[in-house]
């Protein structure tokens, strides 16, 4: 390889590394009027830390739908950007990289605030900011996985701020869920007669994991993904789908992509022990807003059988459990069209009158 070619490659890589993140504008046309839409990737100060949000809508008068990603630390900004495109006509969609995740990775440096109570406070603060900014009395909150825990706790603490709650892969008794997840994975490996997976799971032992628990946790999740417990029908879990959205995203810089993975590993280490102590059956037996649970029938990462038990125990003005028969842990991705149709046809009319 000539020196000239090497220099060109280095220059191209340097240019890519320096490219800022951006989100494509929403072009006027049809019913989309100039000045009424928004496509904004911006940093805010939330809980005394810099954090990033992506806000997109064809009309800022639309009801606000705030997504709380899973993890801890697993940003879904780039994946949701693709998934929620059809919803931008009906909602103002806000995807938020929580402290320590993705574009907000640097906030993990404030270790004193990497506690669940702070994430709940951040959710409430961001909600109030959005309501003030867009002139709304209330917004709709959607949580996925880890995001369902801080979402439920935020709604329970400040029900006056919300007109509805959507739980996607809803957590409840986290420790029990981990036990169910491990037992299901071990059973699937046995049924598949995969001696290697069975041996590895037996070596790990059932939760709660001890010693290098994070490595054991990640190993169990990797094996679970092989049997469709994370992404239905996939032998590699959701990694391929998430990776593609991450690589193709314009919202993330090269460093953001690196921080995406750092955020997962570091946030899990800090926050998962806290999460294991959460039991929403006791902490939040009642919510004062309409509730929808979106559950993948085959979810064994956050076992949907346990989500159903929590749903049946939860008291709220109105509740609905919606099953996704061809999904596991990511029904909003695995059956995206059905998920979006439910939000437009069922949830939108319910929140329109109270925004």
Report on the structure:
- The chain is α/β, with parallel strands linked by helices.
- It contains 13 helices and 8 strands.
- Strands 1-2-4-3-5-6-7-8 form an 8-stranded mixed beta sheet, with helices on both faces.
- Strand 7, helix 11 and strand 8 (319-324) form a beta-alpha-beta unit.
- The longest helix is centred in the last third of the chain and has 22 residues, at 254-275.
- The protein starts with a helix and ends with a helix.
- Mean pLDDT is 93; it is low at 3-17.
Which features characterize this protein?
about 350 residues, alpha/beta, 13 helices, about 15% strand, disordered N terminus
**Spatial strand order of the main sheet:** 1-2-4-3-5-6-7-8
Count of DSSP H/I helices: 13
Strand-and-helix sequence, N→C?
HEEEHEHEHEHHHHHHEHEHH
Rounded to an integer, what's the Rg over CA atoms?
A: 20 Å
Write the topology of this structure.
Blueprint (H helix, E strand, L loop, with lengths): L2 H16 L19 E9 L2 E9 L6 E5 L8 H7 L8 E6 L18 H19 L4 E6 L1 H12 L4 E7 L5 H18 L3 H10 L8 H14 L12 H10 L5 H22 L4 H4 L7 E6 L7 H10 L5 E6 L6 H4 L1 H17 L3
Parallel strand pairs: 3-4, 3-5, 5-6, 6-7, 7-8
Antiparallel strand pairs: 1-2, 2-4
Helix pairs in contact: 3-4, 5-6, 6-7
Kindly summarize this structure in a few lines.
This protein is of the alpha/beta class and 355 residues long. Helices cover 46% and strands 15% of the residues.
